[in-house]
Specification:
This protein is an alpha+beta fold. It has 11 helices and 14 strands. The strands form 3 sheets. Strands 3-2-1-6-5-4 form a 6-stranded antiparallel beta sheet, sandwiched between helices. It has a 6-stranded mixed beta sheet with strand order 11-12-10-9-7-14, covered by helices on one side. Strands 8-13 form a two-stranded antiparallel ribbon.
């Protein structure tokens, strides 16, 4: 069973599950109205973005009460062999399973065991017929029958909402499909929470990175240009004292002061270029990346097809994405060559950076790739990393484009 996409739970009607049509006719209008009200209540809770534990508890309770079940449980798949209880409710006729309790999953058996294979709702009218560890556990809990709806996130079964009954009475008709609607709401809540957590973590890393960047600028200024200027000032003071007494020594001092000033000016220019290259502002992304590729420590095949200049924020994000990616390649990839392709396609600036290095890069483990992902996310974009061991690394970023002015008529190639 699949479901129509659940959009805004506050303003949209509850999506009709394709498996529901078979049993809707057998339920009264009063039952349908009650189910709709329960689902709307849970959807309203989800839309208010409370802690996920609160959503889990509400779903376990409301689903069990709606179906007249003795127990309602929400399970999370920890591994293909193990599930954890994250919320549980009981009508008092039997103790609820404690939160944190772990149970074994048998492949193809039990509610979760079957859902992991099919990602579809499951109905078991007699657990004794299931056999194995599952049947033994259900007998111990006094459970005779049960239904479950899979919580599917990112194309895989994240967990399940289940309801259980004692004795031999079968669950109500279509109960498993009705649970699937609750499972969709849980998936919505979990995805929202994950997005909020990822965004908060990304923002925290960006703040940390900006603080570290300012510190690095301070160190560079103190240890580089500032020291040059201090030395030049001392040399000029000495020059003032030597002019009358020792003209030859004064000329040497003047030459040294000029050298220190020239070096200091060069270091300031290099530092300014690292903060924001003037060529990017004056001539756009194409020219800035061409200059960047020419300075790179390894050959760069550059192809830029951007007929119109994007918003400066996107332009800067694209430039530093390529700049930092080339730095990462030079430091870690052991590559012989790297290609950079940039194109404006249907309102999106697509940036692809691929090298022929050792591969095996993991954005979740290294601060370099994670910083690139944060930079792209910060401007509303998305980046994927493909890096099979031994086959190089490919970064694919999509940045939103807001056009300012036409600057390029033809694609530029540099190789």
């Amino acid at each position: 069973m699949t479901a129509v996409e659940l959009r805004d739970p506050m303003s949209q009607p509850r999506p009709m599950l394709r498996g529901e049509f078979s049993f809707l006719a057998g339920r009264s209008l009063e039952q349908l109205a009650r189910e709709h009200e329960v689902l709307r209540r849970v959807a309203t809770l989800v839309a208010s973005e409370p802690p996920t534990d609160e959503v889990f508890t509400a779903v376990a309770r409301e689903a069990a009460l709606l179906l007249g079940a003795q127990r309602g449980t929400l399970l999370r798949v920890v591994s293909p062999q193990r599930a954890e209880v994250v919320a549980s409710w009981s009508d008092g006729g039997a103790p609820a399973l404690p939160v944190g309790h772990c149970a074994a999953i048998e492949e193809g058996r039990g509610l979760l065991g079957q859902m992991l294979q099919t990602a579809r709702p499951v109905r078991i009218e007699d657990f004794d017929e299931v056999g194995g560890v599952v049947a033994a556990l259900m007998r111990e809990l006094g459970v005779g029958s049960g239904v479950g709806g899979p919580i599917v996130i990112g194309g895989r079964v994240w967990g399940a909402v289940t309801a259980a009954w004692p004795g031999e009475d079968p669950p109500p008709l279509g109960a498993e499909d009705r649970l699937a609607a609750f499972a969709e709401l849980v998936a919505y809540a979990v995805q929202n929470a994950q997005t909020r957590n990822e965004l908060a973590a990304s923002r925290a890393r960006l703040v940390e990175a900006s603080v570290e960047a300012r510190r690095q600028i301070e160190r560079d200024l103190h240890d580089g240009a500032q020291q040059r200027l201090v030395v030049a000032a001392l040399e000029l003071s000495m020059l003032d004292r030597k002019l009358d007494r020792d003209p030859e020594a004064a000329r040497a001092t003047l030459a040294n002061a000029r050298e220190q000033l020239a070096l200091g000016l060069r270091e300031l220019r290099e530092l300014a270029r690292g903060i924001h290259p003037p060529v990017l502002t004056e001539r756009g992304l194409d020219a800035a990346l061409t200059a960047l590729a020419q300075r790179a420590p390894l050959p760069v095949d550059l192809h830029v097809a951007v007929p119109e200049r994007p918003d400066p924020t996107i332009e800067v994000a694209a430039y530093f994405l390529v700049s930092e990616a080339l730095t990462n390649v030079a430091k870690h990839a052991r590559a012989d060559r790297v290609s950079v392709d940039i194109a404006a396609i249907r309102g999106t600036l697509e940036v692809t950076i691929a090298d022929d290095g050792v591969g095996g890069a993991d954005a979740s483990k290294g601060s370099g790739l994670r910083g690139l992902v944060d930079r792209v996310t910060a401007v509303g974009g998305r980046m994927d990393v493909t890096s099979p061991p031994g086959q190089g690394t490919r970064l694919s970023a999509r940045l939103p484009v807001r056009v300012l002015a036409t600057v390029h008529a033809q694609p530029t190639r540099l190789s």
